[in-house]
Amino acid sequence: MRELVETVLWALVIALLVRYFVVEGYYIPSTSMEPTLVPGERVLVAKFLYRFTEPQRGDIVVFRYPIDNRKNLIKRIVGLPGERIEITGGKVLINGVPLSGELFNRTYYSAGYYGQGEKVVPEGHYFVLGDNSENSDDSRFWGYVPRKNLLGRAFLVYWPPHRVRILR
């Protein structure tokens, strides 16, 4: 009986450590990341990644909401520290150059204080947008995400089974 209790306790400790430091699942509650992520999907987030590497433009990240740290949000990093960012004509301009490529091949709406005119992303912060710009509460409205608020990068949709895929 003692061995069974020890085994169960060690398994619990290991599971909690993995969840806290390595990888965790998150539920997608809204349409803000459509078509990339749809409500009801679940993603795995690599929580350890940003301990060793810097976040990159295009990463889908889970972070603590800057206005209420009790809430977690998921969005795509668009602006990096020190960059000039502007949303105009349906495009995101970084240092005056429009973003291109399949990750950014969508219409972005200039809305909110931070979505109007050119802004500079402060050092140690990131500008994040939902892929569904028309229906996303993101950096355009509440500002920049501090580096310390980043929880990790989403890398895999694991639920529902027919939609399992690696994210980019």
From TrEMBL:
Its main location: membrane. GO terms for cellular component: membrane. The active site is at residues 32, 75. Gene3D superfamilies: Umud Fragment, subunit A. Its EC number is 3.4.21.89. This is Signal peptidase I. PROSITE patterns: SPASE_I_1, SPASE_I_2, SPASE_I_3. Keywords: Hydrolase, Membrane, Protease, Transmembrane, Transmembrane helix. InterPro entries: LexA/Signal_pep-like_sf (IPR036286), Pept_S26A_signal_pept_1 (IPR000223), Pept_S26A_signal_pept_1_CS (IPR019758), Pept_S26A_signal_pept_1_Lys-AS (IPR019757), Pept_S26A_signal_pept_1_Ser-AS (IPR019756), Peptidase_S26 (IPR019533). One of its GO terms (molecular function) is serine-type endopeptidase activity. The lineage of its organism: Bacteria, Pseudomonadati, Atribacterota, Atribacteria, Atribacterales. It comes from Candidatus Caldatribacterium saccharofermentans. It is found in: Membrane. Residues 2-159 form the Peptidase S26 domain. Belongs to the peptidase S26 family. It is a single-pass type II membrane protein. The keyword Membrane applies. The chain crosses the membrane at residues 7-28. GO terms for biological process: signal peptide processing. It catalyses: Cleavage of hydrophobic, N-terminal signal or leader sequences from secreted and periplasmic proteins. Pfam families: Peptidase_S26.
